[in-house]
Every structure is written in C-alpha cells, then in structure tokens.
C-alpha cells in the first residue's frame, strides 16, 4: 500500500479542447490574491494535511473566492479551485492582474458588460451564456475583462474562472509542475546514493522532486513501486514514475525516472552520470521498460 495520501482527482470533461471552469464565485467575497512565497501549495481542503492540487511561486495571482475565517482562503488558481494559507497570500478587494480566462454562466440569458464595477455604470454591451473572456482584474466583487478591445466589468456571480485550454484535471496540472521543477536539475551529477540537490542517483532524484511537492515517496526504486497506482504505458501523463529492469538485479526494477510527455522522461542516469532527458523508445530503454506508477 502506498505510504502517501492519494491526491484528490477531479473528474471533469475529458475532451482536451474544452475549457474547464470552476463554480461561479459569490461577488461579495471576490478578490485578487498575490502569492508572497515560493512553492505555496494549493490544497484540496483548508488544512496542511490535505492533498496538494498545485503549487504557485511568489508573484502569482489567484482569484480569491472566499475567506474561510480560519487563516485560509478558497481560491481559483488557473481555474483549479482549492485552498491556500492566508499567511502566504496578500489579498485585496481590487487589483489588476492576469487571471486567465472566465466563462459566462448566466443560466441561458445574456450578461451585461458595464463601464465600471456596478449596475449604475453605463452598459457597454452583453455576453452570451457560455462566452469565454480574458480576466484582467477584480474590483469590488466584479471581474474586469477585455471587451471589444477595451476594458469592461461583469458581476462575479456570473463568471467562472477556467483552466488553461487543454488541461483536463488538477492532477495533470500538478504533474506538469513536477516536470518543470525536475527540469531545473538537468546536468546535475549522478552519484550512487545521492539524495540531492548537488547530486542524485535515480531514486534519490525522484524522491527529492516529489518531496518538494509534499509527497514522501520511498527511497529505493523497487520500493517506489509501492507508491501511487499502476498506469498503463499508453496512458502515461506528465509526472508519472517510469520503471526499468536490466535483467540482472534481484529486485523487480533497476531504474526509475519521471515521465515528461511525448515519449520522453527525465532521470539521473548511471550511463551518462548526469540528470538527462531520454526517450522511452530508445532501444536501451524501450526493451527494459516494465512499469509506471501515478503518485498524484
């Protein structure tokens, strides 16, 4: 059994071209949050024990949906809804920021676009239910949006932040962040027993990367087979662990890396003695590939 908590999986529409949107926020609680520390974790619940949905570095902007009243905020980070600690989040009722895209959820009617944040401002036009717009800020419970080449405002009750196009779940978003973090260590020397950050062996590298995101996976490659859930090779996604067997060791696997997409994986290689990117389809790895595990 895995020694780590499984990540909360968000079962959303599977079509890659569909924008995924959070539930519309109450206008009264709407605000903009700015992360003030690197590696702030977006949690599934308002607790440090809750599963990690994503991480954000200093300067990242989020849509604040609700103050939970216990030192946490319910937020939308790139359309992924979760909770962030208020200790590392500067919150304001208004502010300009690139907050991604939003989808109009007006129950089938049109949504008025105003020249300012309130119904007393001039009407600039309207948006149809389902329309997708760029969110450029928040002001007094209203979203500031790009509208016909200028700036408009719509009520926060009828606009839902959306994920980036092509993202299908919180799990895949975090998987890409894991890959991005691992890529920082390209070229780091391979040393047997290396635990990082100045040197790694293969399982030391995977453990170090996952530990950064709050996942305490096992140390040895063969023991990391006990973490997460099995994944078929045809269903690999960014962040999955991929395992290989050289046919010589007494353990079920002899090597492990992190899948990055397009048939490639990043790993601490004992062949090149460095952290590098290799292809699963290279003869040396295609013939030795045996398993994959999904940790998040």
Automatic annotation (TrEMBL):
- A GO molecular function held by the record: cysteine-type peptidase activity
- Where the record annotates domain SH3b, the positions are 30-93, 101-163
**Which residue range or ranges hold the NlpC/P60 domain?**
172-296
- Give the InterPro entries listed for this entry: NLP_P60_dom, Papain-like_cys_pep_sf, Peptidase_C40, SH3-like_bac-type, SH3-like_dom_sf
**SMART domains with a match to the protein in the record:** SH3b
Q: Which GO biological process annotations does it have? A: proteolysis
Stored SUPFAM superfamilies: Cysteine proteinases, SH3-domain
| Keywords annotated in UniProt | Hydrolase, Protease, Signal, Thiol protease
- N-terminal signal peptide: 1-27
Q: State a single Pfam family of this protein.
A: SH3_3
Keyword Hydrolase (UniProt): yes
Homology family: Belongs to the peptidase C40 family.
Task: Report the protein name in the record.
Answer: SH3 domain-containing protein
């Amino acid at each position: 059994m895995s020694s780590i908590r499984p990540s909360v999986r968000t079962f959303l529409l599977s079509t890659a071209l569909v924008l995924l949107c959070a539930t519309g926020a109450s206008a009264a609680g709407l605000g903009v949050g700015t992360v003030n520390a690197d590696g702030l974790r977006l949690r599934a619940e308002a607790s440090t024990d809750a599963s990690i949905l994503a991480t954000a570095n200093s300067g990242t902007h989020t849509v604040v949906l609700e103050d939970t009243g216990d030192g946490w905020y319910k937020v939308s980070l790139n359309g992924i809804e979760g909770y962030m600690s208020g200790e590392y989040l500067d919150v304001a009722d208004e502010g300009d920021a690139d907050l991604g895209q939003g989808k109009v959820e007006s129950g089938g009617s049109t949504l008025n676009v105003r020249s300012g944040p309130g119904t007393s401002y001039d009407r600039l036009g309207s948006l149809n239910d389902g329309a997708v717009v760029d969110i450029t800020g928040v002001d007094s419970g209203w979203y500031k949006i790009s509208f016909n080449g200028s700036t408009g405002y719509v009520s926060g009750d009828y606009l839902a932040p959306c994920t980036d196009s092509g993202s299908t779940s919180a799990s895949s978003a975090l998987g890409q962040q894991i890959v991005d973090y691992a890529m920082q260590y390209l070229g780091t020397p391979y040393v047997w027993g290396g635990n990082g950050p100045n040197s790694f062996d293969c399982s030391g590298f995977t453990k170090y990367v996952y530990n950064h995101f709050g996942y305490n996976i096992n140390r040895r490659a063969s023991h990391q087979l006990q973490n997460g859930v099995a994944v078929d090779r045809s269903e690999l996604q960014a962040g999955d662990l991929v395992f290989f067997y050289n046919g010589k060791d007494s353990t079920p696997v002899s090597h492990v890396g992190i899948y990055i997409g397009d048939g490639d994986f990043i790993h601490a290689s004992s062949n090149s003695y460095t952290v590098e990117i290799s292809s699963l389809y290279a003869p040396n790895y295609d013939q030795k590939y045996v398993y994959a595990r999904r940790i998040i």
